Amino acid sequence: MPSLNQTSNNHFTLTGIPGMPEKDFWMALPLCLLYSTTFLGNITILYVIKAGQSLHEPMYYFLAMLAVADLSLSLSSMPTMISVHWFNWRSVPLDVCITQMFFIHTFGGVESGVLVAMAFDRFVAIRFPLRYATILSHGVICKIGVAVLLRSVAAVLPVPFLIKRLLFCHSSVLSYAYCLHQDVMRLACADAHVNSIYGLLAVIFSIVLDALVLLVSYILIFQVVLSIASQAERLKAVSTCFSPICAVLLFYAPLMGMTLSHHFGKHLSPAVHMLMANIYLLLPPVLNPVVYSVRTKQIRLRISRIICRGRIGP
């Protein structure tokens, strides 16, 4: 039996499909397809926004931030997901695991913050249309982006240090094919109450607070929309909110499902917990570009021109 005075486990074992290890290889192809679609979709969004002068507006700058957050979140989870399901490499050093969890949680927080910024953008555009460009100037947009990033980094920065202080001398098997704070924390044989309390506070003051701000923001937006006299203008205003609302639902619905299954679904199969966690990490980055490409006319037209130009040739 390892002594509590030393860390006996310097590596963790990642988990593929619980109870079905022989199916792991067949997960590799869908995963590669999902990651490829994520990269292609989000890079296309970034290219279209950069190349189109008409898209150099606050709404599209925030969309570019969302695409960067999606790409970063995918890159954070991809190495271990592919290594587990394709190469069956399941062992991950403690420091690598801590680094991965830092980036996953950081970019998850960034995505949540960007969604709040996009809601603020829609409120300003609908409530103060004539002052829209003045209020959301390039300088203000840059400050919002930096604030979102710094807030997320500051919230997650203590986590690696809190994990490093723990001793791991029992099971080293994680629940997923990537490292999350709550998953690593539960394997500690030392007192992890500080980690648990800090993790809860970080979630409350970032994700939960963002969710409340988003709720209030869209209530205010719809109050402003209802006060518009022209029905055509009301419909136009609502249509500009459709894509940001879809992005909010794509992010928060899987997150809530994963949280509820973690706290109240102890009787559920481990495969269900893994499915919920994978949906949370993989679904928003894949579908956000699709939603914006389909629902945003300017982006849709520019993508169509790029495709047509490619078919016609140089």
UniProtKB/TrEMBL annotation:
Role noted for this protein: Putative odorant or sperm cell receptor.
Pfam families documented for this protein: 7tm_4
Gene Ontology biological process terms in this record: cellular response to lipid
Record's protein name: Olfactory receptor
Source organism of the structure: Erinaceus europaeus
Highest classification ranks of the organism: Eukaryota, Metazoa, Chordata, Craniata, Vertebrata
Record's subcellular location: Cell membrane; Membrane
Domain of life of the native organism: Eukaryota
InterPro entries linked to this entry: GPCR_Rhodpsn, GPCR_Rhodpsn_7TM, Olfact_rcpt, OR51/52/56-like
GO cellular component term, pick one: plasma membrane
Domain G-protein coupled receptors family 1 profile intervals: 41-292
